[in-house]
Specification:
Largest sheet: none
Number of strands: 0
Strand content: under 5%
Helix content: 40-55%
Structural class: mainly alpha
Distance between the termini: 59 Å
């Protein structure tokens, strides 16, 4: 998709772009926020057991764990 510099467009072109965007948005299916929040909550709770951010990463599977210590001879 090409990049459009809005400064180069006429007011008519800007209005046409806004109208086109509004036509797209009108066709979108809307949901109640309360329904969306409930679904998101259920989704999060369903994957809670495997979620590394909630449960933490096992030491043996941590790729960022330091492999060895520093040794001064």
């Amino acid at each position: 998709m090409p990049v459009i510099n809005l400064d180069d467009l006429t007011d008519k072109d800007k209005a046409q772009m806004e109208l086109d965007q509004k036509k797209i948005e009108v066709k979108l299916e809307r949901w109640l926020t309360s329904k969306c929040c409930e679904e998101i909550k259920e989704y999060i709770q369903a994957g809670e057991e495997e979620d590394i951010l909630v449960k933490g990463m096992p030491e043996d599977k941590n790729p960022f764990k330091e492999k060895g210590g520093c040794v001064i001879c």
